[in-house]
TrEMBL record:
It comes from Streptomyces massasporeus. Coiled coil: none annotated. Residues 11-103 form the NAD(P)-binding domain. Pfam families: NAD_binding_10. InterPro entries: Ergot_Alk_Oxidoreductase, NAD(P)-bd_dom, NAD(P)-bd_dom_sf. This is NAD(P)H-binding protein.
Length: 280
């Protein structure tokens, strides 16, 4: 166990941020969770919840006092636009004594990540997770109401990662030596098709689930009906129709960094079974 440290987690109410908070607590560290609305944060006892906005970095000074690690996201504000405030955030962090910074990769180059990579005054680590297992929650309504999953490209491969493992890798990089200047590609332990995922969820909930393969045109119509913007639809067609090798290759990063195997999708499905039965 490393010496107890205090870490600021931004984006703390997000899918990954909550896991970073949880993993740091499990490892015995002190956590300061940054959120734009502390009243809605709902963190465990012992978490120091502070309000702040990454689009207004000078307001972060009190939150950075006495911390050694800082977890960053690359989007901020009410509109979740790419942050342009990276250089100022890093300047304030270093002045406060922050030694280690992790940044959650947003799927493409962003100004904040670029600023972090260019800074040699802190030990930075870029976290590059592949598809989140939590993405399967998008199927919950269809499974509950009709017992179906409707997806295109059902043979596509994914080394999807449990969001808790992203948090675990972040927690280690934020509190231990040896991760500065590195990209950590974070995956699960298996490569799965859509059919594999559906069968795993079916086993977890104890019911049959039908997988309906959509054509590309049907998928686009479904996504538009759901209100997805055209750039998101274009990204999904690219990611699902021709998944990059990095997204379908097991990296082994979780075990290398944390010392334990990555959590499998069977575990995630069991943990979230209620979402697929209408009980959540």
């Amino acid at each position: 166990m490393t010496q107890t440290q205090r870490v600021v987690v931004t984006g703390a109410t997000g899918t990954v941020g909550r896991q970073v908070v949880a993993e740091l607590l499990d490892r015995g560290h002190e956590v300061r969770a940054l959120t734009r609305d502390a009243a809605k944060a709902a963190f465990p006892a012992g978490v120091d919840v502070v309000e702040g906005d990454l689009t207004e970095p000078d307001g972060l000074v009190p939150a950075l006092e006495g911390v050694t690690g800082l977890h960053l996201i690359t989007f901020g504000g009410a509109a979740f636009s790419p942050l342009e405030t990276g250089p100022r955030i890093l300047e304030l962090a270093k002045s406060a004594g922050v030694r280690r910074v992790t940044v959650l990769h947003g799927g493409a180059p962003t100004p904040l990540e670029d600023a972090v990579r260019a800074d040699d005054g802190v030990d930075w680590t870029v976290l590059m997770p592949v598809e989140f297992m939590a993405n399967a929650l998008e199927w919950a309504d269809g499974i509950v109401t009709s017992g179906e999953v409707r997806e295109p490209f059902v043979d596509r491969l994914s080394a999807m990662v449990h969001e808790s493992d992203i948090g675990a890798v972040a927690a280690v990089a934020l509190t231990e030596e040896g991760h500065g200047g590195q990209e950590h590609v974070i995956t699960g332990p298996d490569v799965l098709t859509v059919g594999d995922k559906v069968r795993t969820i079916a086993a977890a909930v104890g019911r049959d689930i039908t997988l309906v393969e959509l054509t590309e045109e049907q998928a686009v119509a479904q996504w538009r009906a759901a209100g997805l913007p055209e750039d998101t639809i274009g990204f999904l067609l690219m990611a699902y129709g021709d998944t990059p090798e990095v997204g379908r290759t097991v990296s082994g990063t979780v075990e290398k960094v944390t010392g334990r195997p990555a959590r499998p999708f069977t575990r995630w499905a069991a943990e979230h079974a209620d979402a697929f039965t209408g009980q959540s």
